[in-house]
Design brief:
263 residues; alpha+beta; seven-stranded mixed beta sheet; cell membrane; DNA_integrity_scan_DisA_N; membrane
Length: 263
C-alpha cells in the first residue's frame, strides 16, 4: 500500500519569513485603502479579472482581445490610479523605519536633544490659538507638513513665512480677514502660507455634517504626509486628520500629545 507524499507540506524558515512579510504587506495596504475609493477600484479590477478568466475559458476571441489590450497596460494603470495610495505607502514605510522610530535616541547621541525639549514651546502658541478659536467658534484649518512643497502649496496660497504666533493665527482666521478662507500651512517652525486651497477627499463615507474644511483637511492628509487640525465653525469642536483618517472631539491634552509626536 502506497503512502501519501507530504513533501509539499514541508515549511522552511524562509517560507515562514516570506509569509510574514506578505501578511504585513497586505495589512499595510488594507490600512491605506480602508474607507477610501481605492476599495471600489480594486473591486472593479477584480471583476474585470473574473470576466477575463471566463472569456478565456469560453474562447470568446473578440472580447478576449479587447480585455487583453486593457490588461497589457494594467501596471501603468495601477500606478496612475493608485498614485496617492502608493505615495502614502512609501511615506508609511519611511516613517516606520528603525532610524525614524529611534530618532530621539539619535538626536540625544548627537547633541540635538534640545530640539525635542523645545517642541512643546513651539506648540504652545498653536494650542493657545486653538483654545481661543474654539471658545469663539472660529472655523480654522491648520496643516502641518514636514517638507514644504512649493509646487503644491505656494501656487494656491498667500506666502507669509512668519514665526508661529497665537495672535497671527487668530488674525488669519478671524471672520472678516481676507485670508480666513482656506488653510494655514506650517512647516520648518514657521507659518509658511495662508488661504491655501487644498484638494478635497474623495471619500464618500464621511458624515454629512463634514463641510469643505473637514474634507480639505482629510484630503491633504491622504495625498501627503501632512496632518491637519480642524476647528468647526458650527460647534467649535477640534478634529485631527492624519493619513486620511480623522479623530473627532480632540481635547487640548490630546492635541498637544498628537502635535508633539507628529509636528
Amino acid at each position: 500500500m502506497k503512502g501519501f507524499d507530504f513533501d509539499f507540506l514541508r515549511v522552511s524558515l524562509t517560507d515562514v519569513v516570506d509569509i510574514i512579510f506578505v501578511a504585513l504587506l497586505i495589512y499595510y495596504i488594507y490600512n491605506l485603502i480602508k474607507n477610501t475609493l481605492a476599495v471600489n477600484l480594486l473591486l472593479g479590477m477584480l471583476i474585470i479579472l473574473i470576466i477575463w478568466f471566463a472569456v478565456e475559458q469560453l474562447n470568446m476571441r473578440l472580447l478576449s482581445t479587447i480585455i487583453n489590450k486593457f490588461m497589457s497596460v494594467g501596471i501603468i494603470a495601477l500606478i496612475v490610479i493608485f498614485q496617492p495610495e502608493i505615495r502614502r505607502f512609501l511615506l508609511l514605510i519611511g516613517k516606520n523605519t528603525f532610524l525614524q522610530q529611534n530618532k530621539a535616541w539619535w538626536g540625544y547621541l548627537f547633541g540635538s536633544k534640545n530640539i525635542e525639549r523645545d517642541n512643546l514651546v513651539r506648540i504652545k502658541p498653536i494650542i493657545d490659538a486653538c483654545k481661543s478659536m474654539k471658545k469663539s467658534r472660529t472655523g480654522a484649518l491648520i496643516v502641518f507638513v514636514k517638507f514644504y512643497d512649493d509646487q503644491l502649496f505656494a501656487n494656491s496660497c498667500e506666502v507669509i513665512d512668519s514665526r508661529i504666533s497665537k495672535r497671527l493665527l487668530e488674525s488669519i482666521f478671524q471672520k472678516y480677514s481676507p485670508l480666513h478662507d482656506g488653510a494655514v500651512v506650517i512647516a520648518e517652525n514657521k507659518i509658511k502660507s495662508a488661504s491655501c486651497i487644498l484638494p478635497l477627499t474623495d471619500n464618500d463615507k464621511l458624515p454629512p455634517q463634514f463641510g469643505l474644511r473637514h474634507r480639505a483637511g482629510i484630503g491633504v492628509s491622504e495625498t501627503t504626509d501632512a496632518v491637519a487640525v480642524i476647528i468647526s465653525e458650527e460647534t467649535g469642536e477640534i478634529a485631527y486628520a492624519k493619513q486620511g483618517r480623522v479623530r473627532m472631539n480632540v481635547s487640548f491634552g490630546e492635541l498637544e500629545k498628537l502635535l508633539n509626536k507628529d509636528f
